[in-house]
Q: What sequence folds into this?
């Protein structure tokens, strides 16, 4: 009897521990999401309609989704390539062990550095009067903007997104690289495999679920970003989050319910991305066990 009562108290105490998180998720994630989804299928008077969903397939909004998806893919690919190489150098390369802690700490900070501060940092560095732009022009005679580069463009925004995509990739892929066992390399080498064959036939197939899952997470991370894009480009680049912002906040295109439909479309895209990421992550963890 005493044991059963103690077990009940322990279970109640455990549930109280996660109650703040559940309350936070309910108030700031679940209820707002349901509100947006409901609003996507209603008109201004609250009547059920599919007009807002049909509005997603207009040329302008489809163009917004196209630009957002292309920026997300480009920044995710850049983050995957550079982040994987950096993580490999830290875990399997010959870099000093002390350097790893500093880099991982920086990655933890940089992966969350976005919005107005990041936009300002890139404007001060690669803007028309930015530090690197001036150094290239005055010291090397190279006019970056005359060559066709523009920070307030597809290329510029992709480059800006890569600032937080690369460190996020490092944080994601490092545990997977640490999970590569020395026995696998030794077994491959004992069978006559070269370094290249080991990576192409053993290591990369094992790492593929982790890399593919990281790509989907980086894609979703870039697709939903708005603060950096809006601070950097304003409304000059027609990506989905900026279109949504314009519809809901009362700009010329004000249509709150169409904005809800845009949010619903973003939820679908990011939801699919995260579902694929979770599936691949489970598969990767199975390999590492």
A:
């Amino acid at each position: 009897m005493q044991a059963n009562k103690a077990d009940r108290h322990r279970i109640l105490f455990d549930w109280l521990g996660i109650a703040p998180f559940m309350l936070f998720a309910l108030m700031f994630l679940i209820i707002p999401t349901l509100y947006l989804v409901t609003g996507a299928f209603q008109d201004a008077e609250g009547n059920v309609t599919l007009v807002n969903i049909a509005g997603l397939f207009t040329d302008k909004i489809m163009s917004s989704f196209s630009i957002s998806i292309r920026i997300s893919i480009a920044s995710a690919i850049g983050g995957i390539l550079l982040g994987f190489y950096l993580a490999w150098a830290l875990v399997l390369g010959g870099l000093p062990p002390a350097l790893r802690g500093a880099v991982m700490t920086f990655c933890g900070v940089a992966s969350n550095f976005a919005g107005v501060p990041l936009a300002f940092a890139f404007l001060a560095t690669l803007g028309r009067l930015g530090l690197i732009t001036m150094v290239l022009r005055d010291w090397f005679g190279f006019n970056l903007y005359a060559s066709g580069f523009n920070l307030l463009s597809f290329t510029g925004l992709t480059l800006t997104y890569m600032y937080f995509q690369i460190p996020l990739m490092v944080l994601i892929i490092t545990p997977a690289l640490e999970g590569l066992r020395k026995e696998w390399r030794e077994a491959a080498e004992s069978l006559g495999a070269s370094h290249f064959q080991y990576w192409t036939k053993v290591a990369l197939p094992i790492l593929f679920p982790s890399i593919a899952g990281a790509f989907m997470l980086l894609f979703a991370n870039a697709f939903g970003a708005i603060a950096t894009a809006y601070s950097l480009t304003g409304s000059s680049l027609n990506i989905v989050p900026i279109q949504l912002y314009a519809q809901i906040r009362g700009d010329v295109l004000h249509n709150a319910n169409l904005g809800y439909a845009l949010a619903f479309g973003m939820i679908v895209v990011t939801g699919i991305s995260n579902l694929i990421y979770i599936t691949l992550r489970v598969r990767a963890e199975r390999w590492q066990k």
About this structure: The CA atoms of residues 121 and 129 lie 12 Å apart.
